[in-house]
Amino acid sequence: MRVLRSAFVLLLCLWLPAAASDHGLRALRIAQADTPRIDGTLDDPAWQGAPVYDNFHKHQPRDGNPPASTLRTTVQLLIDEHALVFAIRAWDTAPAALRGSLARRDKVGLEQDFIGVWIDPVGHGRAAQFVRINTAGVVSDGVYRADDDESDLGPDFPIETAVKPLPDGYSMEVRWPLSSLRFPYAGGRAWQLLVERSVPHAGGTLLLTAPLKTDALNQLAFLREIEGMGATVETVRDRRFVELRPELTLRAARDGVDGRRERGLRLEAGLEVNLRPRADWVFNGILNPDYSQIEVDQPVSAGASNIALSLPEKRGFFLESSDVLGLPLPAFYSRTVFDPQWGARATWRASHLDATAMSLRDEPGGLVLRGRPYATLEYVQPRRSTASLWRTRWHGDGLLLGAFVSQRDYHAFGRNDVLGLDGQWRGEDAEGAQRQAAFVAMHSRTTAGFDASEALARTPRREGGYLWTKFVHSSSDWWNEAVVEAIGPGFVNDNGFLPQAGIARLQLDLNRILGRQEALGLHEFEAHLGLHEIRTLGDRSGGQPGNEVVTREIRPGFWLAAPGQTRFWTQLGFDRQRARQGGRLHRTPALHAGVETVPLPWVSKIAAEVALGRQLDADADRVGPGGNVILDVGLRFPLPRGWALELDHHVNRAWVRGTLGQDAFSDTAWRWLAMLHFSPRDSLRVLAQNTWAARRDDGITQLEAWSDRQIHRSVLYRYRWRHGRTVSAGYVDDRMPLARSSTRALTVQWQWEI
Hints:
This protein is mainly beta.
C-alpha cells in the first residue's frame, strides 16, 4: 500500500506541472489555519497539494528560445481569506554566481537575481501592481501603467517575503495582502498574473510566464489569467480595511544669513488615514503630514521647493489610485503640491468605469510655473492655496475615454480652472502590427497672476487651450511614434507641469528594427531617425509673432543591445535653436551618445550621456564650442555580518566656451551617496552634494560676471521594524557660501501603523 501511495504521489506531482503549464496558473483556496509560515522554506503541508506552474519563456536577450533546463523555475499560489501567497523555486547550477545584496527599497534591477510578480486585479490590461524581490530579500514595488508604458516605483505595498538559499538555487515565499489590491466590487474580469525571473550571470537572462514580444506596446499584453479566483473575490469584496498612520516629528533648526542666526524648535503631529469599506471604494486623508524625510535618495531641506518639484513622487497620499488618475504631467503633476496642511481623496472602481477626486490645502513656499515660448517663469507661492482635481474614465476593449476638472484656488487673489478630455485607442492588424492613438484636450481660465514685483495678484480673466495627440505603430520590423502638441499663449495649469506655452510642437521618431547581428555579437540593433520642431503661436497681448522656429532637430542614429546588459545609442544632431523672440536661429550641430552597462557583479550601473559640439548660450544669444556630460556610477559591496555597502556617484557638467579661451558659462554638479545597510530593515545614509555655476566674459556680449555655489551634506538613519512603522533621525547642512547663507537642521520622526 505504501508503494502504491508513493507511486500515486509521484504521478500526481508529474501531472500537475504539465496540467498547469497547459492551462495557466491555478490558485488553491485554503483555510486561514493552513496558511504557510513565510520563511522561504517550501515544506509546509499546504504547498504539497498546490498546483505547480513551470512554463517559463525566455524574453531577454531577445532570441525567443526556451529557457535553459538548468534554470528551471516553478510557481505555486495559495489564497486564504487575507492574502495571496506565492511559492517560487528557482534552480541554478551556479548558485555561487547569484547576484543579490542589501540595497535601498525600489533599487532591485536587472543586474540582480530576482523574482517579480505582476498582478492586474481589474483584468483590463491597463495597469498592474508589481513587486520584485532579490535574493537578499530587498523589495521593489509599484504600479505599471500600460497607457504610457511607465512604471511608478512610488507605492510601497505591505509585502511579506522570505528567501532561502539552496545548494542548487533558491526558494522564495511572498505574501501579498488582499487589502492592498484594488479591484471592482462586481462584474470585473478575471485577475491576470505575470511572474518573471532575472538571471544576470546567464547573459542577462529574463524569464517570463508568458511569451512576451519585444515589439509589444506594453508589458501587460500577455498576462495570464489566474484560475480559481472567482470565489475568493466574492468572499473578500465586502471586507473592510482601515489603516491609521500617525506620525510625530521633532525638528531643531538653525538658519544663518549675513552673520545673523536664528534658532527654532518645532514638534508636530500628523495623521494619514486609509479606509476601504468594500472592494470598489477607497478613501484617503492626511492631516499635517511631514514629508521632509520621505526622499531618502535626494537632499530635501525646509523650504527647498525648487528641489521638491523635480523629485519622484514618494508620498503615499498621491500614489493611491495612480492607475485611475493616469494623466500626463501637463494635465496633473502631484509635485506642484508642496506642503499640504490637509487633504482628502476618494476613489471608486467599477467593471468599466472608475473615478477619483481629491482636494488639498497647500502651504506657502511651493513653485508656480508659467510657461513662455523661450523661458519658464518661476514664482514662489506666497500664500495658502487649495488644489483640487476630479477625474473619471470609461474603459472598454481597446478604448478608453476620460474627463477631468482641475483647480488651483488662491482665494482673494484669483484662481486657475482647467477642464479636460482624454482618450486612447489600441488595435492590431491582420499581420500582427499594433497601433495606439491617444489625445488630451484642455481649456483653462485664469484670474490669478503675478505683478512686476512677482507678488501674487488678481488679474483680468484669460483663457487658453491645449491639445496633445500621439500615435504609435509597432511591428517586428518598425517602431514609429508621432506626437503633435499645441499650447495656447493663454493656457495655464498650476496643477500641472508646463514649462512652455504659446508653442506648437511636432515630434516624429522612426525606428527600423534590424534584430540580432550575429557577426557583431549584438542582441538587438535599431536604426533611428528623429525629426522634432517647435514653433511659436501668435500672441498679440504678449507681442509674440507666430510661426517662429524655436527648435528644429534632425537626428539620425542607431541603438544597440550587447552582452553585459549593455545598451548604446548615438545620434548626429543637425539642430537649430533660437534663444529669444526675434533672435537669430543658430546652428547647433553636435554629437549625442549614451551608454548603460553592468560589466561586473559589484557594479549596479554605469550610465553616461554626452553631447559635444556647438552649444547655445541662451543668455548671451550666441553659440560656442561646448557640451553636456552626465555620468552615473553605482556600486554594491557585500560586507561581513551580512551587511552591505551601496555607493552612488553622479557628475554632470554643461559648458559653452567664449572667445577668450575660457568657458563663458559653466554649470557643474556632483553627488556622492553612500548607504550602509545593516539589515533589510535599517540603514545609514550619507549624502554629499555640491553645485556651482558661473558666467565669465565671453569677449563679445560683456554680460555681467557672476558665480553661484551650493553645498549640501546630510546623514540619515532609518529603522523599519515592519511595514508602516519606522523611526528616522537625520541631520542636514545646507550652505550657500557666496550668499553667506546656511541652514542646519536635526530631525527625528516616528511613524507607525494601527
